[in-house]
Structures are given as C-alpha cells and as structure tokens.
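Q: Structure for this?
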Amino acid sequence: MLDALTVAVGVAALALAAWCGLAAFRDQPTKDWHFIGMAVVTLLAAAQMVVGIVQLVRGEEAEQGTAIFLSYLIGSALAVPAAGFLSLAERTRWGSATVAAGAIVLAVLEVRLHDIWGG
Amino acid sequence: MAETAAGTKRTKLVKGPGLLLVWLYGVMSVGAVSRSVYQILTDFGSAPLAHVLSAVAAVVYAFITYTLVRGGETARKAALVCCAAELAGVVIVGTWTVLEPSAFPDSTVWSAYGKGYIFIPVLLPVTGMLWLRRSRSS
C-alpha cells in the first residue's frame, strides 16, 4: 500500500500514545489539545482506509487476502476515536491511559496492515 | 436520576482502571471474534483444533467484556471466574503450542502465551482479577 502513509499513521499513533501516556502519568484527564491530536490521527487513519479501498477497487490485491486487509483497515480507523469516546466519560488519568492504549493498538495494526498488504 | 439509581444497585466496574481494562477486553474481543469467524468460515478443516480454541477464546473475551460493562456483584463474580478460566486457557494452550507445535498448523490467540498479541492475553486476566477483587462491594 502507500508505505509513507502507513509509516505516518504509525508514528502519529505512537506520538499520541506517548502524549496521552504522559498525561496519565501526570494524573491528568484528556484535554481539548489531546482531542485535537486524536482527530489528526483519526484523519490520517481514515485517509489510509480510503486509499486502501481505492487500491482494492483498482484491482490490486493484498497478499494475505482482501477480507483480512479490509477488516484491519476498518479497525485501524476506529481504534482511536473509540478510545477517545470512552475517555470523554472518564475524566481521570485512566481516560488518558485508555487513549494511550488505543493509540498503541493502532500502531500495532499498522504493522500488521503492512504485512497483510505484503510490503 | 436513572444513572444514580443504577449506580446504587450495581457496582460500577467501568471506572478508573476498569475503563482501561474494558477497552483492552473490547479490543481483544473484536480481534478474537473476527479472527475466529474468518478462520472457521475460510479453512476450518486445515487446523480444527486451533480454530476451535480460537472460538473458545473469542467467546470468553466477549463474555468478560459484557460482564464488565454490565457491572454488579453477580457480573463481577462471573467475570472473575472467566478471568481465571482465561488465564488457565492461556497457560495450558500456550504451553501446549510451545511443547507440540505440530498440533497447531495455524496459530490461535493464545499461541505461545499470546506472543502475537504482545502478551496481552496473559497479562489481561491477571490485571483483570486484581481489579475485580479490589472493586468488590462490601
């Protein structure tokens, strides 16, 4: 797939994980700036999903199968917004920790996406 | 109003560290369920044992997620039992896959103690049980 985009999403996800991890460490809930960060990462992941689907439509194929590729694409687009949504209701450090965990999940999904596409 | 009423009746398990726990169990549920559905639909015959174990793991994860979200003393106990079962499953299946890899042509969620899932499968039930014990309603 688009390697640059996969790397960008992965790095952005790790940065978000570090940032929210720091907030959790400092005993702070997620704040507006964190949500802007989550929005940026989510946008990148959504762009990746669109690019991935376009490539499938064009007739390119993922090495390990279209179904697996698609489900990982959808999962990676949903991971951070879902964690962010949970953190809205938990105004403590644990909300931040959950977003950090969600971002780490996204980074792992990016590595898997790369393998599934066959890079 | 309704929230406070429910709060007094059921021990809320999705709060503080419990939220992180629910999130991780949710992720594992989605991962394990979709993996197992895919494995069983596409090539069940090639590794029936691994695929059945994947399905069992998926059901356990989904059930624990549900009980944690639901909350309450009964759910807490049920989740505690399932976490213990999950830990036993990870240890038994993990050891089995290490000792006799030939029995598993395809990997399961619990292969090699959950190595493919950065060992979350073996860490989750331990933290889960600690959290569930602490949030016992007196």
